[in-house]
Amino acid sequence: MVPQEPLVVGAIEEPDDLTGDILILGAGGMLGHALRYVIPNAVAKGHELDITNRENITTFIEDLRPAIVINAAAYTDVDGCEDHRIYAMLVNGIAPGYLAAACQEVDAVLVHYSTDYVFDGTQIEYCENNPPHPLNVYGESKLLGEQNVAMEMDDYRIIRTSWLFGPYGKNFVDTMLNLSPKMEQVKVVNDQFGKPTYTIDLALDTTGVIVCDPGIYHLTNDGICSWYEFASAIIPNAVPCTTDEFPRKAKRPKCSVLTSTKTDPLRHWREALADYLKAKGREVQA
């Protein structure tokens, strides 16, 4: 279970209109933990419930009959997806269709998370209605998941987000904090741009999207930065480099800025980062 006082700083107001009729999938992950904190009365399932097994997930949802299913389960290793394409497509692409079909049968709302990586990064920003064009297997698999959800049901909320950080999971902030004391300089790419997003903020705003109209939503913290600019707010010894100097197996979009046309923006990522670092006894770098 999530501790009573997790690594969260700031006033958290628990929504009073959400009950135990909610099922959270992927509850063991970073976002799943945030959702469990924000919606403590929900039924929470992690790896013990295999969403890639259509019969099992259908039976479970039919027996539970939740009003809302929030799917935070995903294979998020972007480079790993290049080596394990079939698995990525199964978890991120096909399984969401199974969930959607099961939700349709019991009249449940499905909230499903997707990613900025469904876009190719050739535009300055992306709204909800911009055509996706992924550059890597991870993005392809998440786009397939979006398509299968929309094909199998009507009452869905697809939430695209980006650059997640938060307690209880591997994330960029913790990676920088771990590397900084071990290296004289930490090289970080300065030609990829996006919006860092705090899992607690995302989970809180998810509760508002649930009562919105069906469709696709972009939810991120406000403010645009490069990975280097993000790192410079975390550690004092980050230095910029180019993507070409730091090659990765999966190609990344250069500018995957998500803009929302349907909801108000979340607070600025620097404010959210300050809360996260404060809980660790640290401060945002000037």
Keywords:
alpha/beta; disordered N terminus; two-stranded parallel ribbon; 286 residues; six-stranded parallel beta sheet; single chain
Any overview of this molecule?
The chain is α/β, with parallel strands linked by helices. The protein has helices at residues 30-38, 54-64, 78-83, 85-106, 137-152, 172-179, 199-209, 227-232, 269-278, and strands at 22-25, 43-45, 68-71, 109-115, 156-161, 164-165, 186-189, 193-194, 197-198, 215-218, 221-222, 225-226, 238-241, 266-268. It has a domain at 22-169 and 195-222 and 259-267: Rossmann fold. The protein is built from 9 helices and 14 strands. The chain is globular. The protein starts with 21 loop residues before the first strand and ends in an 8-residue tail after the last helix.
TL;DR?
With 286 residues, this protein is an alpha/beta fold.
Helix content: 25-40%
Spans of 5+ residues with little confidence (pLDDT < 50)? Answer: 1-16
Largest sheet composition: 6 strands, parallel
Beta-strand segment tally = 14
Indicate the CATH topology of one domain. Rossmann fold
How would you describe the shape?
globular
The fourth-level CATH homologous superfamily of one domain is: NAD(P)-binding Rossmann-like Domain
Q: What amount of the residues lies in strands?
A: 15-25%
Q: Return the string of H and E elements.
A: EHEHEHHEHEEHEEEHEEEHEEH
Q: What structural class results from the helix and strand content? A: alpha/beta
Mean pLDDT across residues? 91
Count of discrete alpha- or pi-helical segments spanning 4 or more residues: 9
Instruction: Evaluate the radius of gyration.
Output: 18 Å
The neighbouring-strand order within the major sheet is 2-1-3-4-5-10
* Named CATH architecture of one domain: 3-Layer(aba) Sandwich
Question: What is the name of the CATH class of one domain?
Answer: Alpha Beta
End-to-end gap? 36 Å
